Amino acid sequence: MQSNLQEDDPILTTSEVARLLGVATSTVQIWMESGAIESWKTPGGHRRTRLSLVQGLMHGDDQARSTPNPSTDKEYQPASQPGYPVGVGERSRLAALAATGLVDTDEEARFDRLVRLASMVTGSPIALISLLTSTRQWFKARVGLAARETPRDWAFCSHAILKNELFVVEDAMEDERFRTNPLVLQEPHIRFYAGVPLRDKSGQPLGTLCVIDREPRRLRAAEVQGLIDLAEIASSEIQATGRNVRN
């Protein structure tokens, strides 16, 4: 009986799963590590899963996780002609974001607290925790801004996640990348922006902790360090969330 069960539901390697789903092996590894695909490690440290678990992800049945499915959800597939800069690992980055299950979830005190502190530490009227899908930037937490999301094409954060450190725009009207941006020409009339990438356990940048002002300015050294420290805390919170965020 056990033998028949194993034949009907064979064990798959990460490469075999990648072929089934039509994604890169590295993407499957991220899904498995995050729990988006249930798996286990062999004594040699290699990830394995069952065919039934992959089929559940493909067909969206009750075995599929509550996280988005990057193999079918266009919001988590790289844009064919993006109107924003992207890194070489955009597909894996989007898969990692999907695995958190954070986008479109309710407000949470732990993240709201961090944006309030970022606003206070830097003296900025606007502070955000922004997560970037392929189509939009969605705000998990926000202070000083009514909108819950914007098109990805408008996101200053698309530039920030390509950096390994703080990304700063001291005067958007003097920066050719941003002077015609709708967020600069219209509400909230961004002139100053500073953002720090928020990363998952594998180092993928999922979004930013950023602060915004309506006047050109610079950050002092203490403000920079405070923002970086808060971003590290936000990253730790995201990493602790995993696939159970909606449970």
UniProtKB/TrEMBL annotation:
Q: What is this protein called?
A: GAF domain-containing protein
Q: Which residues form a coiled coil?
A: none
* Residues of the GAF domain: 106-246
Instruction: Tell me which species this is from.
Output: Massilia cellulosiltytica
Fetch the Pfam families from UniProt. Answer: GAF (PF01590), HTH_17 (PF12728)
Q: Which InterPro entries does the entry link to?
A: DNA-bd_dom_put_sf, GAF, GAF-like_dom_sf, HTH_17, SinI_DNA-bd
- Which PANTHER family is this protein grouped with? GAF DOMAIN-CONTAINING PROTEIN, SLR1143 PROTEIN
Q: Name one GO molecular function term.
A: DNA binding
The segment annotated Disordered runs over 59-82
Please give the start and end residues of each transmembrane region: none
CDD domains associated with the record:
HTH_MerR-trunc
